[in-house]
Amino acid sequence: MAKIGSTPLMFLLLCATFGAVLSANSANISTDQAALLALKSHITHDPYNVLLTNWCTSTSVCDWVGVTCGSKHPRVTALNFSYMDLTGTIPPYLGNLSFLASLNIRQNSFRGSLPIELTNLRRLKYLNLGNNSFDEEIPSWFGYFAQLRGLWLYANEFTGVIPSTRGSLSKLETLSLFNNNLKGQIPVTMGNLSNLKLLYLDYNSFSGSISFSISNILSFVKRCFIHNNLTAGHLLSGIFDNLSKLQVLSLTGNRISGNIPNSLCNCKDLEYLSLWNNSMEGSIPIEIGNLSMLQSLYLDHNNLKGN
Ligand SMILES: *[C@@H]1O[C@H](CO)[C@@H](O)[C@H](O)[C@H]1NC(C)=O
Ligand SMILES: *[C@@H]1O[C@H](CO)[C@@H](O)[C@H](O)[C@H]1NC(C)=O
Ligand SMILES: *[C@@H]1O[C@H](CO)[C@@H](O)[C@H](O)[C@H]1NC(C)=O
Ligand SMILES: *[C@@H]1O[C@H](CO)[C@@H](O)[C@H](O)[C@H]1NC(C)=O
Ligand SMILES: *[C@@H]1O[C@H](CO)[C@@H](O)[C@H](O)[C@H]1NC(C)=O
Ligand SMILES: *[C@@H]1O[C@H](CO)[C@@H](O)[C@H](O)[C@H]1NC(C)=O
Ligand SMILES: *[C@@H]1O[C@H](CO)[C@@H](O)[C@H](O)[C@H]1NC(C)=O
Ligand SMILES: *[C@@H]1O[C@H](CO)[C@@H](O)[C@H](O)[C@H]1NC(C)=O
Ligand SMILES: *[C@@H]1O[C@H](CO)[C@@H](O)[C@H](O)[C@H]1NC(C)=O
């Protein structure tokens, strides 16, 4: 029974492997060239004529400005068009750059929606779309970038909520979403991003409780910026119990109420703490004096008393 049952399975596995090898082989540098020419055709404004004059089929794509190819495989591994003041959209073709590990288009005027074909970029480690004009929701399929280390979407006009991504961003170390139009709760699933070190959520309009959604996150991040509008309620007394890695915490302007927990003194590496412009009450815990690394402390615009 087992033998009969396993034969078709083996066959299927072989076919699948063979199919994968075939499709990997059929994509080559010509595929990458087609993808980049599609991108070029989606650029509507190129003030310094970078792509217009430089991206010509008479030279190898690997020699084009902003393009880096791998040393082992002659395939495009990195694109960097930052600071080129380009206006345009991202074509689905970009998803054909199957060796792409880094896509950096920060500081341009790209707009429109992000095509789902980008999920084919299985090797993508760094995706920087910061300071562009993207104004739709953050797609939930970002969760499929299993290799992603850094995701920068700051200074756009992304709307809606942070999606509770399925899939896995377990390698993500930097998440920068500041300066967008995001709202809603910070999803609990962010607590799964256990390699996250730098988190920037400031200048959005999040709501909901800070204690519940981010106490998990704070246990592994080093730097966390959430200047917002959370109807925060109290900081849970346990929130600082185990934050040994935290170096920078900014919770400016969140309407957080209640006392500053004494457990703050467990954050031994804390260098910067801002609870500025909240509704905190009670006295400032004397244990703050134990934080020997602390260089900046902002507590004003609260209802705190004492020395
Ligand atoms: C890429 O593959 C296509 C067929 O899939 C082939 O026609 C073309 O010559 C190849 N290009 C290079 C540069 O190998
Ligand atoms: C990308 O390009 C910008 C501007 O030319 C440059 O400052 C930056 O170092 C580049 N980044 C990488 C990773 O090559
Ligand atoms: C690349 O992607 C486009 C759009 O996603 C697709 O239609 C096309 O067949 C692909 N081209 C190649 C050469 O793989
Ligand atoms: C975004 O780009 C503009 C124009 O180049 C610049 O003035 C601004 O400082 C940038 N903002 C960020 C957050 O990088
Ligand atoms: C992600 O977090 C949620 C809520 O904390 C949990 O239920 C789920 O099992 C986690 N998923 C993964 C893949 O770790
Ligand atoms: C903050 O929240 C309050 C109450 O929910 C709302 O009225 C206000 O517009 C919000 N402010 C910002 C800047 O999002
Ligand atoms: C503190 O965190 C460490 C590692 O992140 C974990 O092993 C430990 O169980 C945590 N302790 C408490 C009290 O949560
Ligand atoms: C304090 O934060 C609130 C948002 O919670 C904001 O509306 C207000 O302008 C801030 N106050 C100051 C002095 O910045
Ligand atoms: C923190 O400071 C308090 C009061 O100054 C002191 O009694 C306590 O032993 C200190 N705790 C640690 C862990 O250093």
Automatic annotation (TrEMBL):
<dbReference type="Pfam" id="PF08263">
    <property type="entry name" value="LRRNT_2"/>
</dbReference>
<keyword id="KW-0732">Signal</keyword>
<keyword id="KW-0433">Leucine-rich repeat</keyword>
<dbReference type="Pfam" id="PF13855">
    <property type="entry name" value="LRR_8"/>
</dbReference>
<dbReference type="InterPro" id="IPR032675">
    <property type="entry name" value="LRR_dom_sf"/>
</dbReference>
<dbReference type="InterPro" id="IPR013210">
    <property type="entry name" value="LRR_N_plant-typ"/>
</dbReference>
<feature type="signal peptide">
    <location>
        <begin position="1"/>
        <end position="23"/>
    </location>
</feature>
<dbReference type="InterPro" id="IPR053211">
    <property type="entry name" value="DNA_repair-toleration"/>
</dbReference>
<feature type="domain" description="Leucine-rich repeat-containing N-terminal plant-type">
    <location>
        <begin position="30"/>
        <end position="69"/>
    </location>
</feature>
<keyword id="KW-0677">Repeat</keyword>
<dbReference type="InterPro" id="IPR001611">
    <property type="entry name" value="Leu-rich_rpt"/>
</dbReference>
<dbReference type="Pfam" id="PF00560">
    <property type="entry name" value="LRR_1"/>
</dbReference>
<protein>
    <recommendedName>
        <fullName>Leucine-rich repeat-containing N-terminal plant-type domain-containing protein</fullName>
    </recommendedName>
</protein>
